[in-house]
Amino acid sequence: MQRHDLATDDLRSLNAALQAQAAHTNQTEWEVLNPRGAHAIAVGLDAPIDVTVNGSTGYYCAGMNKQARIHVTGSAGPGVAENMMSGTVVIDGDASQYAGASGHGGLLVVRGNAASRCGISMKGIDIVVGGNVGHMSAFMAQKGSLVVCGDAGEALGDSLYEARLYVRGSVKSLGADCVEKEMRDHHRAELGRLLAAAGLDHDPGSFRRYGSARQLYHFHVDNAGAY
Amino acid sequence: MDDTPRTLPRYSATLTPEVMSEIRRAAATGIYDIRGGGAKRRVPHFDDLLFLGASISRYPLEGYREACGTGVVLGSRFAKTPLELKIPITIAGMSFGSLSGQAKEALGRGATLAGTSTTTGDGGMTEEERGHSAMLVYQLLPSRYGMNPDDLRRADAIEIVVGQGAKPGGGGMLLGQKITERVAGMRDLPQGIDQRSACRHPDWTGPDDMEIKILELREITGWEKPIYVKIGGARPYYDTALAAKAGADVVVLDGMQGGTAATQDVFIEHVGQPTLACIRPAVRALQDLGLHREVQLVVSGGIRTGADVAKALALGADAVSIGTAALVALGDNDPRWEEEYRALGTTAGAYDDWHEGRDPAGITTQNEALAARLDPVAAGRRLQNYLAVLTLEAQTIARACGKSHLLNLEPEDLCALTMEAAAMAQVPLAGTDWWPGKGGM
Q1: Cα angle at B116 between B162 and B415, to 5 degrees?
Q2: Is A213 within 8 Å of chain B by CB?
Q3: pLDDT (average), residues B200-229
Q4: How much is the pLDDT for B58?
Q5: pLDDT for A223 beyond 80
Q6: Which of A56, B6, B90, B428 has the fewest CB atoms in 10 Å of its CB?
Q7: Domain annotation for chain A: domains and CATH numbers
Q8: Which residues of A touch B202 (CB under 8 A)?
Q9: Of the candidates A53, A61, A103, which has an alpha carbon nearest to the alpha carbon of residue A78?
Q10: Is pLDDT of B402 > 80?
């Protein structure tokens, strides 16, 4: 186990050490102590290592992650796992705004709640939120799946492309061009896989699915009121 | 036959034939006019300034004997590896998607031969441009199409795009006919749909957030890459100050004549400030922070000649950037394609339906047959030639003003032809020692 204490070590040395790990490193276990809400912790990683951050983080923890499995035992500030490419990021607490923004791949699990714009512009990432998500979540979401085990705020999935949204609780309102869709067997299977990966045992049958009506894919003046 | 004298038909200065044609088009289609390029209206510009040249108080340098330096370093504030350009003229961000692969390759070739940088655009980095660009600036745009850490690390600099001069406050769009399989794949979108680019970044709002975003980018890239922040010509004093305060190495300032791949004509023509009006406030912002020259200022939007280059530098810029002019150098709007331009309802020199993907010159298109018309090697050479001419012209003027480096040009070398230009550039109206607002507004 490699330990970095941000009470004494600076952020640059932590990230440089984590980023220096090669694909076949033997140093696969890392622990970060005293994050104290620091920004940009464990960003730009590209190795199959396990990083545990003991505490809460500031902005952009695990930004642009590839391969690494990053576990934050506290809560995460804005933009956690932004633009993630692969790997897994787990937040035991809550996540602030823009969780998983523009992520291209991998799995982000927020065991608590996620604030507004969770999954904004997502491009292939899968996000599982144990609690609720705030307004404008999955705005302009392109690919991947957003699973919300609690409730969703206003304007869910506004201007959605091909991302899939699964919500177990209530949805305050749907955004432009976002509609409820039939939950088919392969959707239930996908949802079951994501819930299992997140360590949650909810019945996939208790969720509703939302997706794009694809009415705004080509501009038409008669749809102008929707923009 | 009635031979009573008649007045000539008289067009309204308000409802011109052009305006009326747009009203008819709008009524027929129900959609605003979309086009590429920058503002076409006449606004105060570099043409409204003149250099004074040397006199008894200043003596000139010999044109064919005495050196006039052109090199500039961008990104020296915090980055470990700033860009060292041979000329203070860079190629602005233009996306693969809006441009063909051949055009991107040609831009890379020409810029590299000239010793300067080129820039990606919305849609990510292509092998054509990375492979042919010795110095490539990778844009981080609100859409984040194609954004990934590997390309971030193999870029030579990173440009956070907050806005652009053609549409400050606006996002972008790429219509379905240009969303080919390759373009769609790079953007993680279905093929053939109208693709929107967001106007705001998805994971930050405001300058304090941007400061943290810059920290993240520096941490991902080991503090090696210069970080540029590109702003549209909206509030140049405050935007420049905030970008510098947020930690930018370079501020790229794009005035309203700066081009775009496609947006609403009403946006291009009615939002933002002329380039000329933006430079002095941006320079003053850096001076007020004690950062002028430490944070480099790159100005774009309507740069066409070496005189424009020299004037922008004299007003305080460290470099300029060209987009539309570079496309013209490659072959855009060339009269050799006049017959085909006419078939599209336009004429060479006025073609701006870049979003439709039917460019006869093969530049603003994803149509393989059209794109194949552009030879990237020959087009790159034309761009190299053009950049050389811009540089030579700027040097000619600088020497005449007694400057041994282009960056030694200064506002005192200029006068203005009009009151408006004098006020915007804050240089004296020709024949006077006064400009509107001099001594405080």
Answers
A1: 75
A2: no
A3: 96
A4: 87
A5: no
A6: B6
A7: 2-226 (2.160.20.60)
A8: 82, 98, 101-102, 117, 120-121, 139
A9: A61
A10: yes
CB contact under 8 A, B149 and A120: no
pTM of the model: 0.95
Give the Cα separation of B320 and B318 in Å (integer).
7
> Taking the alpha carbons of A10, A13, A17, A19 in that order, is the dihedral positive or negative?
positive
Q: Which residues touch B308 (CB under 8 Å, ≥6 apart)?
A: B46, B302, B320
**Mean pLDDT across the stretch B184-211?**
87
B39, two tokens: 């503002």
Q: Which of chain A's residues have a Cβ under 8 Å away from the Cβ of B194?
A: 217-219
CA distance B191 to chain A (A): 10
* Whether B219 and A12 lie within 8 Å, measured CB to CB: yes
The pLDDT of residue A216 is 82
CA distance A123 to chain B (A): 6
Confidence class for position A225, pLDDT limits 50, 70, 90: low
**CATH 3.20.20.70 intervals, chain B:** 51-409
Beta bridge mates, A129: A110, A148
Q: Which residue of A has its CA nearest to B214?
A: A40
Residue A227 has pLDDT above 70, yes or no: no
Residues of chain B neighbouring A162 (CB-CB closer than 8 A): 189-190
ipTM value, please give it: 0.96
Closest CA to A102 of B98, B151, B188, B94: B188
Distances (CA, A) of B158 to A24, A79, B83: 30, 19, 11
CB nearest to B203's CB, from A82, A85, A217? A82
Return the pLDDT at A226: 63
Chain A contacts in chain B segment 164-203 (CB below 8 A) = 176, 187-190, 193-194, 196, 198, 202-203
pLDDT at B441 over 60: no
CA distance to A100, A116, A168, B73, per residue, from A129 (Å): 11, 12, 11, 46
Interface test with A, best of B178, B197, B220 (most A CBs within 10 A): B220
Q: Residue B233's pLDDT band (boundaries 50, 70, 90)?
A: very high
The CATH number that domain B51-409 falls under is 3.20.20.70
pLDDT at residue B193, as a whole number = 80
Contact A59 B212 (CB under 8 A): yes
